Amino acid sequence: MLDLFEPIQKELEHVENAAINNLVSDAALVTSIGSYIAKNGGKRLRPALVLLTSRAFGYTGEKSINLACAVEFIHIATLLHDDVIDGADMRRGSPSANCRWGNEASILVGDYLFSKSFSIMVNEHDNRIMASLANASMKMAEGEVQQLMSKYDINLSNESYIDIVTKKTAELIASCCEVGAIIGGASEEQIKAMHSYGKNIGIAFQLIDDTLDFIADRKKLGKPICNDMREGKITMPLLHVLEAEKNGARGKIEDILRKHELDQDEVGFIMGLVSKHDSIEHTIATAGKYAAMGRENLKSLPDSPEKNALSNLSQFIVNRDN
Amino acid sequence: MLDLFEPIQKELEHVENAAINNLVSDAALVTSIGSYIAKNGGKRLRPALVLLTSRAFGYTGEKSINLACAVEFIHIATLLHDDVIDGADMRRGSPSANCRWGNEASILVGDYLFSKSFSIMVNEHDNRIMASLANASMKMAEGEVQQLMSKYDINLSNESYIDIVTKKTAELIASCCEVGAIIGGASEEQIKAMHSYGKNIGIAFQLIDDTLDFIADRKKLGKPICNDMREGKITMPLLHVLEAEKNGARGKIEDILRKHELDQDEVGFIMGLVSKHDSIEHTIATAGKYAAMGRENLKSLPDSPEKNALSNLSQFIVNRDN
């Protein structure tokens, strides 16, 4: 992914510096945990999208740096809380923050980062941007709650699942692109198109995440395989198996999931069905469709290295293996 | 406290209705937990302060209703997270939300309420108000982190303790009063005075909370006695004992606290010292001083039933028994 961010390499460094400055606090743990998760949190996808979209519309000022930092803070706040909720001990190959500093600290530093991101946004004095990010944050929490409520629910529909994915992952990514377009002075139509682009690649991103849980090895993804299934999270590959097996092993899968604790044989049994029905391929193909819709949304953009990066990014998201 | 809120009884009902409307969500748990904690969360102190201060400066419009709802959402979000962090099973005589719905749901619904409150604020289009509340939220989380870091630390200074109390409790209360004054069109000087009033009564409020943990019975407060001490939280009564016993039982108290699990005898031993040194009385007297400073801050306000209520409130906060 880093190659794709080449047009905004310098700006991403400015975002890193802004993040470090914004993590200075009287509470040393805020600085330690904030920096740790900022470093281990991942790919800088969200700040990169703010930067790429704003630059795609010709913007080169400071506003995008600060807002890119704000969206990264929202993202790492949710990572901190998600890891507590999932009881995760690893994040991208390193011990999770909750594992290192405890759940209490992770919850509180997450809250701090939420508030800090709000504070950074307020300093930019742009109500429309704040409205977009506030709405995305709300949707994210709502999606996470809906996911929690649908744990172990094998009757979850594909439609409801896409709704959850949209809220918990795609809305913030969509808002990043929308915010970039607003900063860049894009037209109403272009702002909407960028929001749609973000939503589409966001859904694709989450669907690929779902497949990686089934196929990636622990080292690369930094988390154990089939974690979602073990936690009772029904994702697209499993939904596809359940549909394909509705007159077959569906009852047995139901029994396995209901136990809330899967042994290696049971994981193997379900993995066999995932393989038999090409459910990973089905999910990747679905992600590919969303990514293609995302590329369609880029049509109204003027040609630029950033537009190319956004287009390539939609492909990269589908092809990535971590 | 309810009597004191008589001048704003109707407005408080509007806030309740606004809260109910703002808790409508696709995720049923958001509505259930949000309503539950809003009902069991307590005294409506923070929304009442927004309403009383705005009315004290002659404001009677809708803005104060919505912002009162936003501050209550911030407050109940922190209650949800605090109860997870403290592993609390009760809140004001009822099972805590985390006890009823689980930690995961409490964390996520807390996040939802934070975002929702931000969203409500954004709709009011007032950057100064947002800046005040964003800063208060940040300070709150920072104070909670500092409290976490100073658990079991018998070398905590009185000054550091007041700093923690100011951040974790008084800053939001100060912001509520500041926001009310801004809505009411108060002068700069009056806005500052109202912020100081809120900070002073906020500190008093927390110090009394600290004493109630030592003296209130479980039924009234809805939580077990000496919970703070059992959790390793060093509050003012204990700080007072530690100072008084610096050439006496300090070493023994240190040993007891370090164990991280206190038996009934040990609680009794410390309670004996609290009683011997009048540490509750000392803490109440300190709270009284802050409350008196709060009343001083009201001098620049024009006379009104709301000003009287704010003055009486500062006294009530010190005299309350739950």
Give the % helix of chain A. Answer: over 70%
- DSSP strand count of chain A: 2
User: What is the CATH homologous superfamily assignment of chain A?
Assistant: Farnesyl Diphosphate Synthase
Which oligomeric form is depicted? homodimer
**With helices defined by DSSP (H or I, 4 residues minimum), what is the helix count of chain A?**
16
Largest sheet of chain A: 2 strands, antiparallel
Detailed description of the structure:
- Chain A has about 325 residues and is mainly alpha-helical.
- Chain A has a single domain, classed as Farnesyl Diphosphate Synthase (Orthogonal Bundle).
- Helices cover about 75% and strands about 0% of the residues of chain A.
- Chain A has helices at about 10-20, 30-40, 45-55, 65-85, 95-100, 105-125, 125-150, 160-185, 190-215, 220, 225-230, 235-245, 250-260, 265-275, 280-295, 305-320; strands at about 90, 95.
- The first copy, chain A, has a two-stranded antiparallel sheet.
- In chain A, strand 1 and strand 2 form a beta hairpin.
- The longest helix of chain A is centred in the middle third of the chain and has 28 residues, at about 190-215.
- The mean pLDDT of chain A is about 95.
Relevant terms:
homodimer; 322 residues; mainly alpha; Farnesyl Diphosphate Synthase; 16 helices; 2 strands; 1% strand; globular
Secondary structure topology:
The structure is a homodimer of 322-residue chains.
Chain A: H1 9-22, H2 28-40, H3 45-56, H4 63-86, E1 90-91, E2 94-95, H5 97-101, H6 103-123, H7 127-149, H8 158-183, H9 188-215, H10 218-221, H11 227-230, H12 236-244, H13 250-258, H14 264-276, H15 279-297, H16 305-319
Antiparallel strand pairs in A: 1-2
